[in-house]
What we know:
Elements: H1 3-9, H2 13-23, E1 25-27, H3 34-43, E2 50-55, E3 62-63, E4 65-69, H4 75-99, H5 109-118, E5 127-132, E6 136-140, E7 151-156, E8 164-166, E9 169-174, E10 181-185, E11 192-196, E12 199-204, E13 207-217, E14 220-230
Antiparallel strand pairs: 1-11, 2-4, 3-6, 4-5, 5-14, 6-13, 7-11, 7-14, 8-14, 9-10, 9-13, 12-13
Helix pairs in contact: 1-4
Amino acid sequence: MHELAARVIALDWKQIERELDARGCALTERILAPRECAALIALYPERTKFRNRVEMARYRYGVGDYKYFAYPLPAEVAAIRTAMYRKLAPIANRWAREMRIGAEYPASLKTFLARCHEHGQERPTPLMLRYDAGGYNCLHQDLYGEIAFPLQFTCTLNERGRDFEGGELLLVEQRPRAQSRGEAIATGAGCGVIFANRYRPVAGARGYSRLNVRHGVSTVTRGERYALGIIFHDAK
């Protein structure tokens, strides 16, 4: 087993599940060591590692840029994606039952991706994001086709306070018959957040209701911020 996969499996998944149910997000302990974060950042200029680069301002997504990795993914990224999917699939299946959406997620990422590919979703979606001072990411949902996994992961790759300021992860829930609720989350280098990328279930007097969730990044006020994003479904 890859060392990073072992770290993912060793996380406190009972606590992560409790936090996901209560808040729609859960913070992880440090998964990537400083040298591993630096190695991923060093990949960013290498064109052959990525399939596409997006300038956010061009599409009014925000200010900054991001790159989708090409297959084969870097070993570190593939290890995190595979191991984390394995632990999140049971949670995703329970959420699907509670929200009565009729989805079912297989136990392995390999089987899930085969289903994506059968629906024409064959392009990898793990990505790296870069923001200079003044950069930000508008609220959005990462949906790339008919098949979508309801949770995703992001990990900050450099150090808040030393390399940059600002740039918190923003999560906004659109609650039924109520005002939206927002949360700003700051993490250290190598630490991450697992969060709902479209809907999450919330228990009520008449069973579960479905909350719509969007995410973004607040303005980076100083320096340069890098992050890794792990999306589990592939794109058309």
